[in-house]
């Protein structure tokens, strides 16, 4: 990591980057008002430190002990904040993504979208390719599900988020969705991470069931190193010995991640607990701990959901929870993203690929 | 579990209890305005259900599938709220217990007591018998430490909490402290649990490193079944694969415990994270999730603490944290216990034993 | 699950299968000397049990509570034993797969192949696509690595095993390797599992870091349900709180898996411990517990391996270990696969796809 | 740690020890044919290294990074082997301890003792104080149970092992038993560890449910530092996310412990699996991995055992298992302790305290 002096010119920065490239490594510059930081990555870490230190306007050359660099707050000290369909992610305002586990039918996803919007959600989630444990379980509606989501989007103006399970699904997904989700089971599917790293669509990256915080940051590094810098990390519970809940919410991970990375960090209280009754408490805790957003399972009729009904909130319970979350957000000097005006969003036309 | 009809007389309740006793089991009555619930405990669960159901004013006889009974919210639907040295525990107000890991010297504990009181704490913690991993580490000051704590108590009016590690220490502890702590490593030291169950002093019971929520409730049942009903449960992090923090705070445990038991539930963000930098976020999360209190390590000079310095807050950081926690408490319709007037408390004279 | 009477004819079996198909479910028949068992799978489990029971030669119709069926020992009571390049897997003889973590160069993989063959190994492992935590680490040689492996195979006669990380790599892999490995991080990459399920090449399926035994069997079910019945399960250590070793070998999983499934179960003591010094003890334990094989990392020069050097055995240590394992195998009435004659194997020509 | 030159005299060793004592630390000498190693322990590690190095016959003064010293193989490179009631523990021969979870009656423990002896066991286990999760479960027979065990001992000649749960039980236990067990839940009950450290009776120390290997060695250090050097470590399964078995046998812990400590290491396959069906496989694995013994639950009538029936073997299954274990022991160049002649052992008269 090379720290430039304040006032270094673009030319001086480029000289440093070229020197790095001459040594068969890659450089990424993070330039802001206070100066520039140049991250250097590559297998062979034997850069000529003395040569670099002697270049004009180089203030310091540091060896980084963390195995991730682009994800590191050392490389990028300020929070990553990026605009997304009319609001921002990673800044002071807290977006709420909500919707059913699976897109089950046209009616169900439209009803869900309208209900979560009415309660105050800012984006719609819904699975069309489902990573189910059993090959005999419902595997998602596929493209027809994406079309239903696009329709729900057109009707409500809510941007849509869906999980991509394989590289082969990627071109189709990019035609329909505003944000891709990488599920917990695919957090270390490096081929998939590289593929989404080559797109420019925001990626919600879920922590694996037994992934450490460092593993999660390394997975993010795969996406970032492809040039896609809009990565949102998601804590969704880890696997422990405790069986009273589906997973154990690692609430510690919120401040730990906020200390180590500049990327936005959100929490999924539905998977993290597995029981609708515990979701509101954990959603409030997440925001109190500093989470930058929530992704929540809401279903118009949880008892008849094809998947994850037990952990899905009814629209009423979701609305009640958001009122509590709003109060907690304000107590920690944040605010929920204000509800959207009802103007429909124009259909996403594959501009992200 | 036997549910009496509303308006059952004391005599009718006693008849039920006697019938239970005649069958070699033990009965505990929980009587309140809406009626009475009689918990029945014992190894042999072959009570004559039909005989009991036929007794006057018996509304229902239920078999309980949970292995704990006195700790269960089914037996005792309303929250347990009990007075403690001028405030209440388990009700709307949230007490803060703070102080150093170990009592190191007279000066250190008095300085700690004054600092945590000034910041708004309601009770003083400090270890005089320390469960240290190494037999060669500082093991605590013992009785002299208790005397220092009593002095700090007299000067500040803060009640004192200290860990008891063995039955042999119990008589001495009862002379000095206002609340006993059972540490995580002793959560299943059943001899010790039985001993404190025979006293009438409040007991702060910490969850073991690999104890499930149910294990914790069973440990509480040991104390309750001795007749001591002032048990406070404490989540302090569990052991998982994650190494970024000392333990993993199981924030889910807060709503799970509040659903299953009537006992107050507090959280120890210091042990649950192991790093001072992460303590405030987790303290806020605990209160947002519904915790009934906090126990926090604060040291006048963390860098020179003989134990747990890395996770101890400075008095300034503690005061800053309490301001945040206060705002979160109000957002969830709770309030911190108001700071104490400075009148000294009279020395505890062993009235609990 | 439908159990046919002994002596049921092929025609009677087909009638049952057709009836299942008419109800929009899928049937798989396991026919052997004692009779036939027909597994029925599908989301909608509302088969007309009475209709099926009334069909000729149907002995019993059972609902199965396990979520896997083709992998279940109930469906397939006898062990799955299948021939593989001159020996058998899943029967009395125990094959040893050995080789380096990564194919690093032509010389290295040929030297490895010759060394492990001389010590008694029966197949060669080597990674050409590597699932590395860091995007900046060596990611494998790709196709050139496969060519080197094919050359090593031609020279030594050892069949070759390599990990496939994505569907895109599959056609190429099928041209070169004799057995595919699905790595722990991809155990729940369901797209990949389905893809290899459509091939007819043996698949070594590694247990995920936090996968339960049931999760592993469900992952196998994905492959089996595609029609590929040559699946070998591999215990390679799970993630726990213990940090003295890289993972915790779940030795219990060996007898548990052998009780629940008919599929062969092997163990990888290299990943399961992470330290060469502990590999021989765990390899002996695996065979004593009933494992059907071992896969072991061996490198001609572990100190200079590009990956996993710390857990790789030298050829000498590997040979010493195999002598111990041989003695243990005989003590439990098994035997190692006898070393191969030196006749070269003809190059695999993609017959598996 | 101070390493003396070969041939150092007792006087020279004593001079070193005195110098250590003058610096307020404690020294323990391990003297054998090759020379002497002096372990130095104490909180304050600021010994005058130069002074010590200058003493006659001091070869080397080493700082030890491990937090345990007396338990360390560095301090005591050769295996600890000690005689116990007619055989040795920690050497080439492998003792088998077997018996019921709880002593239930005179008849039951005598029948158990005779059955396990007939099958080849070398010592009798049986609980008289039981650490039960529920305060309402059977808590053990107490002293009467000890009398029954003594009677079983007199009849069969098998030495007896029982768990001590508190310091208060210690004097009574010492009158009756030949080896004390510290249970998993009390592994970090430091008061109890210190108490048994002051006796001279062999102690079987079980690993806690979430104790690391290092935690276990630190617990042993508590006993050793009291001067009791006959400590036997016992792996009995750890708590993980896997629910197919009661605990997860950490088989890796066997070679890890054998590398780090000189103390004998045995395994309890009954608690480590929780299912009788899996006990033989794990018992064989333990011996193959290098365990120095086994402790196994055997009950004359497991279906009617008051505790742990599901994991108890019948005497027939136990005998069958021992034949397998014997073959595995011989394959790794060990042997089971030969069955005892039937001469009764004289009653233990409290000589250990």
Structural description of this entry:
- Four copies of one chain form a homotetramer.
- Chain A has 353 residues and is of the alpha/beta class.
- The first copy, chain A, has two domains: 2-61, Alpha-Beta Plaits; 82-336, Aldolase class I (TIM Barrel, Alpha-Beta Barrel), CATH 3.20.20.
- Chain A contains eleven helices and 16 strands.
- Chain A has an eight-stranded parallel sheet. Chain A has a four-stranded antiparallel sheet with strand order 2-3-1-4.
- The longest helix of chain A has 17 residues, at 315-331.
- The radius of gyration of chain A is 21 Å and the shape is elongated.
- In chain A, 58% of the residues are buried.
- Residues 344-353 of chain A have low confidence and may be disordered.
- At the A-B interface, helix 8, helix 10 and helix 11 of A face helix 8, helix 10 and helix 11 of B.
Strand order of the largest sheet of chain A: 14-13-12-11-10-9-8-15
Main sheet overview of chain A: 8 strands, parallel
Order of helices and strands of chain A: EHEEHEEEEEHEHEHEHEHEHEHHEHE
Number of domains of chain A: 2
CATH architecture tag of the largest domain in chain A: Alpha-Beta Barrel
CATH class of the largest domain in chain A: Alpha Beta
Broad shape of chain A: elongated
- Distance between the amino and carboxyl termini of chain A: 30 Å
Low-confidence stretches of chain A: 344-353
Give the overall pLDDT of chain A as a whole number. Answer: 90
Helix content of chain A: 25-40%
What oligomerization state is this entry in? homotetramer
CATH superfamily of the largest domain in chain A: Aldolase class I
CATH domain fold name of the largest domain in chain A: TIM Barrel
The structure class of chain A reads alpha/beta
């Amino acid at each position: 990591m090379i720290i430039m002096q304040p006032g270094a010119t673009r030319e001086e920065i480029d000289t440093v980057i070229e020197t790095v490239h001459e040594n068969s490594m890659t450089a990424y510059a993070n330039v802001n008002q206070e100066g520039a930081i140049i991250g250097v990555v590559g297998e062979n870490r034997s850069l000529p430190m003395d040569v670099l230190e002697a270049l004009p306007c180089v203030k310091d050359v540091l060896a980084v002990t963390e195995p991730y660099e682009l994800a590191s707050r050392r490389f990028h000290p300020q929070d990553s904040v990026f605009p997304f369909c009319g609001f921002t992610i990673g800044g002071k305002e807290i977006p709420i993504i909500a919707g059913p586990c699976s897109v089950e039918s046209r009616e169900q996803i439209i009803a869900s979208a309208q209900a979560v919007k009415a309660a105050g959600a800012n984006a719609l989630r819904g699975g069309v390719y489902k990573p189910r444990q059993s090959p005999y379980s419902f595997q998602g509606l596929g493209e027809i599900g994406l079309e239903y989501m696009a329709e729900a989007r057109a009707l409500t103006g809510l941007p849509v988020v869906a999980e991509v399970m394989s590289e082969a699904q990627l071109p189709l997904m990019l035609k329909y969705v505003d944000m891709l989700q990488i599920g917990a089971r695919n957090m270390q599917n490096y081929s998939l991470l590289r593929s989404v790293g080559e797109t420019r669509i925001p990626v919600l990256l879920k922590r694996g069931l037994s992934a450490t915080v460092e593993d999660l940051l390394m997975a993010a590094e795969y996406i970032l190193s492809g040039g896609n810098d809009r990565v949102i990390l998601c804590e969704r519970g880890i696997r422990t010995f405790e069986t009273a809940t589906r997973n154990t919410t690692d609430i510690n991970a919120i401040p730990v991640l906020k200390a180590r990375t500049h990327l936005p960090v959100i929490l999924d209280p539905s998977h993290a607990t597995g029981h609708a009754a515990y979701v509101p408490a954990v959603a409030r805790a997440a925001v109190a701990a500093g989470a930058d957003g929530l992704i929540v399972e809401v279903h118009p009729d949880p008892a008849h959901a094809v998947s994850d009904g037990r952990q899905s909130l009814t629209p009423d319970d979701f609305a009640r929870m958001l009122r509590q979350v709003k109060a907690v957000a304000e107590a920690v000097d944040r605010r929920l993203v204000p509800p959207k005006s009802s103007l429909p969003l124009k259909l996403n036309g594959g501009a992200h690929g």
